[in-house]
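Forwarding these from the shared drive since the link keeps breaking.
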Amino acid sequence: MDVNEVLAKYSEKISSEVNSDIHQDVSGISNDYKKFKQDLLPEFSRYEKWVKIFGRIISIKVSNKDEIKINKQLETAHLDLNSGEVAGFAIISFIFLMFSGSLLSVGIWFIDGGGLSEFPVFFLFLVLIMSMFVFYYFYSMPNRLAVKWKLKASSQMVPAVLYTVIYMKHTSNLERAISFVSQHIEAPLALDFKKVLWDVETGRFSSIKDSLDNYLDFWKETNIEFVESFHLIESSLYEPSDARRIQILERSLKVILDGVYERMLKYTHSIKSPLTNIYMLGIVLPTLGLALLPLASTLLGGAIKSYHVFLGFDFIIPFFVFYLVSQVMLKRPGGYGQTNLLQNNPNYNEYISKKSYIYAFIICIPFFLIGISPLIFGYTPIPNWFGLSDDFLLPNIFSLFGKNTFIFIDNANGRVGPFSAFALILSLMIPFSISLFFIISFSMRTKNLIKSRNDTIDLENEFNSSLFTLGNRIGDGVPAEIAFAKVAQSTRGQKTSDFFKIVNTNIQSMGMGLESAVFDSRRGALVYYPSNLIATSMRILIESAKKGLKVAAQSLMSISEYVRNIQKINERLKDLLADVVSDMRSNMTFLAPLLAGIVVGLTAMITGILNQLKDLTAVQGESAISGLGNLGTITQLFNVENMIPPYQMQIAIGIYIIEIIFILTSALVTIDAGEDKLGNTYEIGRSLLKGSMLYLVTAFISVVSLSLLASIALRGVAGG
């Protein structure tokens, strides 16, 4: 082989290897990015999967205006879908729900005995309304997911700017700063910053500044302060003077802090009226309307059935309240919130464990069986297996509840009931067992984690001065590893002392480096104090310490100032939110359960009066009673057989109260602290304990007292 052949042979080989390496590199980055997105967004991935499966069954061509809008929303939410698939999935959902509802309506019609006059037209109308709403809900889903993405991403904007500012104070390199930020902030903003780097590496943009500017265009309409902060950071690259450069960087941090405060201030004023309207329309009015249902059902000849009440109060109204609340929550500006470091807590297994549900189920199932015992006696053959009657007389001590235990009525349409006050009291065990299940399980899951959370909050409150002390020690030339021991001694008796002691113990006794002593997944100090603020501070300390002790000291001083400002903002925001949160919480856990409990008592009183009038008619015939008129006319006008049994109505009300507490508590936690799973679970357990127990006690007292009052009043009238 001559020289040319050798050169040609190896040139081809080298060229193929280079092309292969380039292809693998780009492909690897792309796959990493896709895997990163899939790991961070499992709920979005499920939505994508369903739309991909069903959205292609019916191909829908939307208008150009909607296509542009939906595609932009899909891009914002990082969804690999198109507008046609979204519209197709919405149509499929509408058709499926409408078809299922129609079949159910026909089934109900056959069960009731047929007849055109008895066809559940109202139920079919509700199915149509719900189908239309489901179509709208899924058609507008990209908008909600886009807003949710923005809210979640914006909650990490302040730490992102802080990381960038602190890093660029000692290393004026924007690309390295963005890389550092993308590795140490939480999702989903971390995904966006990785995408900024990824676009540069794949050649979409020639520089990190061009890629970052393209990304910042996305936030111009919603978070202009974030854009301004990064433009100031970019402008610091062109400053020859270090003093001037650092001044500009500090200014960028102040811009975003002020922006967060102003946006939350506007939000606190704007949500008062919507939340009040939600409470009145979704809680007060439906609860008051319940008081009219017993008489309305008799006057309408039984047109209102029990399943109407369950459908309306346990599905439609809660869904309506949930949707309105979610719309209000989507308007919440980001900027601050709880951290995802909950998963690093050593007690996190208690939070995800299923044992608490098993224990709660074992405790609550006897109460639930007691609650459904009237249904077992009235509608199943089980009592006959043991030689028991489906109804029997009550002892004289319970005479105020009527003569019979359950009071079932057999007519041409089948058996209806139970109508007795005693059965109504037994029905209280059903919402009691459901609420007790969640109270026990949620308490077991969160009690240790909440204690750790409170310790962390105390630590954060003290962390500002401790950071300042640590910065002074490092500024005096003391290495960071030794400075932790000195600060632990000087802060003895405070929460921060325990944190610094753990770091010092890991370094001195375990032989760990500074980073492992803080961030180790098993023994790191951050495991016992899961705080985003502390994690941010320690990460910046470790990174800046690589540049020297002076740089590390300056970084800690900057963080201390940041902590002081952020604490002021958070305290001020909590003060602004206090009125809204306290009013809604008192309405949810006091007024709504109180009204619902009184309504249950009124239902028991009305039913008891009609039952006793029916008994008087059977004994005295259709004679006239002073003050009431002819008994036969009254019992025909208010026929107890057409009334919704108070037993079933109480179950519907009890479940409705539990659902409302779930929805509104989640809303209050989101308003106060952003997305906080631990706080949400803990607060729901507490609110259920207050609200549901108040409802049950009020309902019990109302049933007993009003039943007694009705019994005494009718005895006097009958005697007269």
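-- next protein --
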Amino acid sequence: MPGKSLQCTIMSYQVLARKLRPADFSELVGQDHVVRALCHGLDHDRLHHAYLFTGTRGVGKTTIARILAKSLNCEHGVSSKPCGECSVCEEIRENRFVDLIEVDAASRTRVDDTRELLDNAQYLPSRGRYKVYLIDEVHMLSASSFNALLKTLEEPPEHVKFLLATTDPKKVPVTVLSRCLQFQLKNISDDNIVAHLAGVLAAEDVPAERGALEIIAQAAGGSMRDALSITDQAVAFGAGSLKQDDLVDMLGLVGRAEVDGLLKCLAAGDAAGLLEASADLAERGADFNALLGDLVRAFHELAVDHAVDKRATAQFDEQAVQLFYQIALIGYRDMQIVPDPKSGFEMTLLRMLAFAPDEDSAGRIPVAVAQPAQADGTSGEPGPAQAQMPAPESSVRFPDGTAWHEAVGSLEISGVARMLAEHSVLVGCSTETVELQLDVAHDTLLDEPQQQAIERALCEQMGASVKLKITVGTIQEESPAARREREAAERQRNAEAILESDQTVQSLLNEFGGRLGAVKPLDDAAR
């Protein structure tokens, strides 16, 4: 309209990670050990000329450095509680304080840049009490730059403070480390992240489900900045609210329902159900590595339930929980070397079923019922002799009648090839073909070079050209390795029993107040 000016107001949204950056030490989360030491130094005039803050991303390294710069230069004096209202505090908060020189070492690695920066260190600060150099990712400096920095660190001017931050302190020269006061920042715990996010979202008037906050905390990996960034994204995704299902969809995670479904199949010993669930998850693009991590956490929760006597709510007995946790953990580690994540995930689940403590299921809680007495008055539980009965040996023999465990002992093989042979059983033999079955628990031993080494040794032993075929499966017979372990255990028990029943040994123990230490059978000691 004529005669009137138009005014345009630009509304800008500030992300949570910047909006909620702590303004003083009291607002920091999860770094109490660092805050306590810094506050004591500030309040008792015990100031160092150089501080090094180390830790993973987003845990508060540069934030602490800026608060420290504010504490050193506040117009009301050096204190652990800067006023936050004076011109210096406001300028530092707005990143325009002339005596706070922030440097990103990743982009300024040249020695000329460092020298130019440090040449100005000799001049007094323009506005503040101290000239503060904040060098982020200091480990990225070149060797020449570190040498230039070292000269200033050795004889720093009284008006200069160095605040160094890095995610990789191992790359910082020892000569620099020794001249800094070092603080290791911790990864922020999931509980602290959840509690902080809950307070933040309540202040922002954003409704949030507890499960959604827990997912964010897990995804953040100890980084509060990452947690706030994910929260920003999730609020936008959820149209102003945080829901657990939305977080699962947004991050491409597998929900608790899917994990519970896998646990039910394991408890029921349902291999077909596990493979069907795996195929369904593959179609949805699930991260099998992350899913194995979820299973590890689930078994940890079950172990905690048992520890606090919540057996009524657990699906597995204590033995199964411990075993499956270990199998899942090994599977999680081996996901880096499996041919593809889906097969590695399925193999881990099938291994759990193969080694389940209970024959009829994968370790469901057994009903505590006393075994009925037999006609002779003994308990129905198996005795020691029954419990130690070895698994049957394969009835398949070589053409000359030799058993597999005897043949393995004379084969000219060693290392992984011998381990592969000893963990297998003979399931077929002719003058042309030898067929072995490898225990599924040792399937990682199987590869082409080792199989060829066994095949060559068999040809030499049999004096004929034979082909070796090895399949993988759950073996029912006793492998040579299992036989060797059983026989060693029997020798050990026999040796201990002989000494415990020997009157001379017992009289010596009684006379001198001694006890039996390590017992080793003579034939084992000679090996």
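The CA atoms of residues 268 and 361 lie 5 Å apart. The first strand starts at residue 50 and ends at 54.

- D.
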